[in-house]
Every structure is written in C-alpha cells, then in structure tokens.
Design a protein that fits this description.
Helices cover 52% and strands 3% of the residues. The protein is built from 5 helices and 2 strands; from the N terminus they run E-E-H-H-H-H-H. Helix 1 packs across helix 2. It is flat, with a radius of gyration of 21 Å.
Length: 137
Amino acid sequence: MAEEPLREPDEMSELGTTGLRRSGGFVIDEYIASLRGSRGHRTYREMSENDPVIGSILFAIEKILLRLEWRIDAGGDEEADEEIREFIEECLNDMSDSWDQTLQQILSIATGPFITTSNDICGILIYFSIAKLILGF
C-alpha cells in the first residue's frame, strides 16, 4: 500500500485545539461549581457589593474607563476602512444610551448577567464587541 503524500494545510483548516473544555458552545473553565451560571453571577454580585477591596477595584476601573477619551481609527488606508470607521462612529453617536451609560452596562457584565436598556441592534452589537475587548470574553 502506497503512502499518501502530506498535504499542505489550507489557511482555514484547523491545526489544533485550545485545550478548553466546551459544552453547548460555552467554554467551561471554572473549576468551582458555585461560581458557574446563575449561582456564579449571584456570588460575583455579592462579592462586588460586600467586599471593600473588590468593590473599590471595580469602582476604580469604571471611573478610569469613563474618563478616557474614546475614538475610532480606520483599520487601514483604503476607502472601505474609512467607511467602516464612519459607520461605527455613527453607531456610537446614534445609540439610545450615552457612551458612559453603555460602558457602565458593559462593566456590569463582570458581576452579573447582561442587561441593557438599549433597544437598537447596533448598540447591542457594540456592547458585546467592547465587552469582549475590555473583559476578555
């Protein structure tokens, strides 16, 4: 039987795995069962409200992020990059909530379930995109 020659992997082929345990599309990386799911949200909320060190750190992070000047830069020099930048900037300025309110809602994801007062899809997409960047989701 002749051996098949090794094929070069195409750009989109899977080369390995992350090593993380997954179930139902969610990464299961919390070993303490009481910190998973709704019990975990409740525990994190209690910790943020009752522990002075955790509460003060979360408060400091929120205040620092609220004082930053946020801007959108184009991803390149192409015309399409500039159009995307303008679109994202429009979305940020057209949301039903202010940017400060949006950031506060994003930061609340760290200690509880996602709750938003925004009813526009663009705002919700921005919430999750920024939350992923800030909180590392």
